[in-house]
Write the structure tokens for this entry.
Amino acid sequence: MDGKQMLMIPGPTPVPERVLLAMAQHPIGHRTSEYSKIQAEVTENLNWLHQTQHNVQMLVSSGTGAMEAGIINVLSAGDRVVCCSNGKFGDRWVKVCQAYGLNVEIVTAEWGKPLDTEQIREKLESDSEKTIKAVILTHSETSTGALNDLETINKHVKAHGEALIIVDAVTSLGAYNIPIDDWGLDIVASGSQKGYMIPPGLGFVAVGPKAWEAYKTATLPRFYLDLGKYRKATADNSSPFTPPVNLVFGLCEALRMMKAEGLESIFARHQRLTTATRAAVKALGLQPFAPDEAASTAVTAVLGGDADAEKIRSLLKKRFDIALAGGQDHLKGQIFRIGHLGFVGDRDILAAIGALEAVLVELGSAGAATGAGITAAAKVFAGQA
């Protein structure tokens, strides 16, 4: 049936009808009092979502642009940084740092495994001269479904005393509890097409007081991504450059929906969906790629077992019009990824798991048993598992 595609990928995520309708309004001038009122509400609710008293800066970019902005506004060429990588997006931050001439030291972990927090602690403690300027990491590694222990890593950074912590929270902001002010996080970057429930096009950067101090002496080149310009404009309920007005309309509505649901409920829902998804795939004889203790609440990566992961994805799309994400780089064909981020509920998981069961049975997967996945997920939703 045409027009019934179901997005179950970690971004872009499904967009609520309320948000789509808000975006369908006629645009207005971005230098008008009407727009300023919307900007003021958006800023207030972004601060609420980020759990910070400091205005979150909104950029016209993807999450990658937000992360790049975070780096270039607080660092200088030649600065020593520790860049953590255990997946494709950790690798990306290494490349961004190297592109700007930073002195990059890489801490790695096998794809699918969380970062070893002790490795990071040891590197920071051995820095007796306090030359490390920043520790940079991806919180929820979208490529593998692994969640890194941000809270512990942040404690080690704080014990160092000088280094900033710069966080890619693109698929964890809005899906996992990140109390930015309570933890004292310095830079947290995210993107609109994930937990915010709107289409791609906006990036967000939360900047703490220590990062703003570093901004004063940072010398990497910046213009369009100069966060100081955004800070001044945001304080005036404006934007330094032309914003995508209709996307901001959608963001305003999405944030209202999130505020009505409440932070605790949002985080609990994402955890419930994660638990149900992992229980279901295990019941179908498949294995989540990341361990239970490091499971992302945004996406579950699954090993294809005795069926090719790309065949599973292709058949799901062809037969049921359900889109799952594939493996990236060397994991292509080995894993598929089920997104459960943003505007996703229990019904979506049950539908996706039911379709997955049917596909596995059709492909003759050894562990597939009709009803096993649905039963496992239903027990989680019923509070029985």
In short: The CA atoms of residues 70 and 210 lie 13 Å apart. The chain has a mean pLDDT of 96.
